[in-house]
Amino acid sequence: MALPKPRTILAIDLTRFACAALVMGYHYSAAFWTLPDGRVASALHGVTATPVPLSRAGLVGVELFFVISGMVIARSAVSASWQDFLARRVLRLVPAAWICATLTALILIMGGQGDATLAADWFRSIRFWPIGAQIDGSYWTLGVECAFYLLVALAAAGDARRIAFVGWALALASATFWTVCLLLGSAAEPIITNQAAILLLLPHGCFFAGGIALAVPTRGSRLLLALAAGTGMIEIAAHIGGPASATVAGEALFVLGLAMLAAAPRMQAWLADRINDGVARVIGLMTYPLYLLHQVAGAVLIGVLARSGVPLGVAIGLTVAVMLASASLVARHAEPALRSAVQRLVSPRRGRAPDSLRSAFPRAD
Known about the structure:
Helix content: over 70%
Strand content: under 5%
Order of helices and strands: HHHHHHHHHHHHHHHHH
Largest sheet: none
Distance between the termini: 28 Å
Radius of gyration: 20 Å
Structural class: mainly alpha
Number of domains: 1
């Protein structure tokens, strides 16, 4: 079912924020204490905690981010030239990423975590270069998003039928990829994590396809959604791993998220009567900077507080509050100001980007 085009689609904004909260919950209650990356491990040196295995289900927030991206991009690309489409994507992604990467670098330096590779990782992140280390592990999804944007821009911008075709191509390619991985078993691990496969959207294309199926109504859209969702279940099981309970919980959250997104048109009036449109839009806009800031910067703050004698639970709670406040400030003040400057470079003859675009965040871990 096609989505209406109000200034903000409340169910999408709320689901998007819930996805960021799930990913943050996974990092703060499990990943930080089991599989920390280099900078997170350094920031949390000397701080220990018992991980919560079930919280691995929060990883599904990444997959749902990709579904939302498929919906938003399909809708915005239908009536746009490829040049206009890409210019709008630049305006949506670049300013907040520049701000958050810079804030993360400053926090690392102030927390005593600056090192010889920091400048190179920061520069790689603000260029959206997908190969090599990033300033924060969450930035890996931006390479996937950009690959999807380029595919839509070059193959389908301005034509709903071609966008639906892209959805089928992604779903079939992803289904084939995961079928091969299932046949290979444990030997498929190098393929699943291969950077080229990831940038070709083979592991995650099914989620973008699911979003396209939800946004672009065709006679085969229900079948496309079923194929995409079924393939997505396989990817989720491989991504979450860990205890079976976490996988089951993650897949249940994925189904719930799909149901929320599919019901978005019908829920709009009901939600609009209960949630202020401006509040919901701010929540939606916060999601992108929250996703980019919470991991490494959050680990630095948790480590500093915990080593200062603050109980770990309190340190995590304070860090969540700081991350939410920081994301709000970036979304409401810093990002719009920088976006205006960038807009004068990429589209000097146009006015402000439409509000619907400013609330459209594509996914992430």
